[in-house]
Structure formats: C-alpha cells, structure tokens
Prior knowledge:
Blueprint: E1 14-34, E2 37-51, E3 56-61, H1 74-89, E4 93-94, H2 100-107, H3 112-130, H4 134-138, E5 144-146, E6 148-151, H5 157-170, E7 174-178, H6 185-195, E8 201-204, H7 214-220, E9 227-229, H8 238-246, E10 251-253, H9 260-269, E11 274-277, H10 279-282, H11 285-297, E12 302-304, H12 311-320, H13 335-338, E13 344-345, E14 355-357, E15 368-369, H14 371-377, E16 378-384
Parallel strand pairs: 6-7, 7-8, 8-9, 9-10, 10-11, 11-12
Antiparallel strand pairs: 1-2, 1-4, 1-16, 2-3, 5-14, 13-15
Helix pairs in contact: 1-2, 1-3, 2-3, 5-6, 9-11
This protein binds 2-succinylbenzoate and magnesium ion (MG).
Amino acid sequence: MRRGGEEAADLEELRVECVDLREIRLALRRPFRISSGTRHELRVLLVRLRSSDGTRVWSECVAEERPEYSPETVDTAWIALSEWLAPLIVGRSFDHPAAVDPLLADAVRGHRMARAALEMGAWNLAARRAGRPLADVLGGERREVETGISVGIQEDPDRLVERAREASRQGYRKVKLKIEPGADVEYVSTVREALGDDIALAVDGNAAYTLDDVDRLRRLDDLGLLMIEQPLDREDLVRHARLQRELRTPICLDESITGPARAEDMLELGSGRIVNVKPGRVGGFGPSIRIHDLCMARDVPVWCGGMLETGIGRGYNVALASLPNFRLPGDLSPSARYWERDIVDPEWTMDDEGRVTVPRDRPGIGVEVDEDRVEELTVRRAEIS
Ligand code: OSB
Ligand code: MG
C-alpha cells in the first residue's frame, strides 16, 4: 500500500520555476530547555516554491541554529538548499510529488531537514494546484488531531507541576516532560502525585542517558508513563532494544529513526514500541508515509513530533497527523503556545479538549502566510531560479 501515491491520477504534472529562501528571527514566548540545550529566539529557514503557473507555497525547514538535536543547522541547510537541492528541482517536471524524495535522496547524503523542506513544499504545491487540502493528498483521514504538549526542563519540580497543571487545564491530551539525569525521577513523580493517574504523561530524554542509568530508568518505569522517548544515544538501536526488554513502559524513538530502513531495523530488533515521526528528520512526507505504513503493518503506533515550528511547519505536521496510524497525540501545540504572534492567518488553535482541526475545506495547508510580516522579520534571502 502506498498512501499518497494512490492519488497520482488526480494530480497534474508539477514544474517548479523558482525557489526562494528566507531566514527569519522569531522569539519564543518562553525559553525551551531540553537535555541538549536551551532555545530562546529562533532562527527559522523558510522556503517558498513557485510553479510555472504562478502558484506559490511556503514551507519550513526545521533545522535549528545549533547542531544539538541533529547534525543539521540553519546554515548547513541554507548551503544544501541553495547549492545542491534547489538547483536540482528548479526547471524540472515531476509527475507526482512522491518523485521528489528519490531524486534528492539519490543526489545528496544526509541533509534530510533541508531535503524535507523542498519535498514537503512540493506536496503542498501539488495540493494547491489541484485545489485540494494537503491532508487529502497525503491520504489522511482524520478531521481532527489530538494534541500533546512538550514541556521543557524546569528549575525545580514545583515549577514543572505548575506547567503540567496548566497544560492539563488547557485540555492537552498528553503532557511530555523533558528530562535529563538529575531532573527526572523526582520531577516526574512529583508531577504524577500532584496531578493523579488520569493524566497521560510521557518523558523525553533526548539521548541524555546510557545503559549505566538503567536503575534510574527503572524508577521511571514505575510511574505509569505512556512512553519514554529516546533515552539513549541518538544513533542507537541495539541498546534501546536491551533497555526495552528491561522496561514495561514503551520506548518511543525519535532521533534514532532517520528513515524507513531505520524504522524497519527498530521493528526487527525491538528497540521500541512507538515511533515519533517528524517529517523533517526523515527527509519529508515520502519517507514519513513509508514509516507510517511499516509501523501500521506491525501494529506499532506513531505520532507526529514537533520542532517548535511556526504556523507554516505546523500546517504540514497537522496534515500528516491525519493519517490513520497516527494514533497518539502529536506535539502540535497551537500558535499561542510558542509565539506572541504567528506568521500565518488564521493562527493555529486548539479546543478545550486538546483537538486541532485538520483544514478540510481549504487547499494546501489551509492557512495563509502573512507575507508582510515575513518580510519584516527577514534577515537573509536568496533566490534560485
Ligand atoms: O525531542 O521532540 C524533541 C524540540 C526541539 C528539538 C527536539 C524536540 C523538540 C520538542 C518540541 O519536543 C515539541 C514541539 O514542537 O512542541
Ligand atoms: Mg524527542
């Protein structure tokens, strides 16, 4: 089964005439701290694709300023996009957006976040030109997606309880707590005690642990967590498999899953029981859909992770999360959680039961980009045509 690809007959040939790169600066409302570093003001790389008929779409590259989560950065993605990737697709015709990933993946090793920004933009461009919602073109079925929040590491357990309580009151369906050795067992158990057993709690170690910490991780295992996300090394599968055999709580992999083959390895080895799919991390929608399908065939649930995207990246994630095996709440918080003011109209909102509506009656990602605002925030630009 190839989702998305089934729609080939309905999509016209696609020809990208021009790619624009923009770097903007956008301040988070609150600093976001994870085990590998803290984010304040974000540097965000936006991409605009224009097809030969004049249709334009924006996409977002999720590479960050520093190589803390992944080896890519805003600057490496800028080079990859302007030097190698955009020149490959400009002036070329595609029967279907599913043909973009094989072309880019064949030409360039790694640089998946850079590739994804173009690849996902191509899917949106095809959707826009067909007058169809992106979620439809991807094969998504849901009309609403459930939302979880990712709460950064706090100074002390009490502050973490405050944040988690606030999130739970706002309606979030899952509260994911960032952890690191020393800010884990005491913090998470304090939250569990304060908020009770009904709240769906998860933790994310962002690779801060080793197998030497197994006793610590066993104590987390007693807290009734929905999952423990990426406790061990970013590139590891074998040790996660060992750890999973020691724990009842499902391990969810994030960093380690860089593409469909790694997802297959994880399933084979038993390195975890849940996958966090971030389309930017795996090279775009083509690989995301393949991971989704592989996991679905093995009855392994996936959910859509986030990279503190603006409303542009969020639109792509919401569309992806409408596919059927996205069975757990995604890190798809509304605009107001991250930004004083987002760069899309309307901004993304969440109802008080933690649901975000998948735009089904508007083409593409379903929101418009505030181009004047993007212009004001721009600090660097390039055009590849
Ligand atoms: O591990 O999921 C992660 C943000 C930056 C780098 C890594 C991660 C995250 C998040 C953000 O958890 C979640 C969100 O976008 O709301
Ligand atoms: Mg993670």
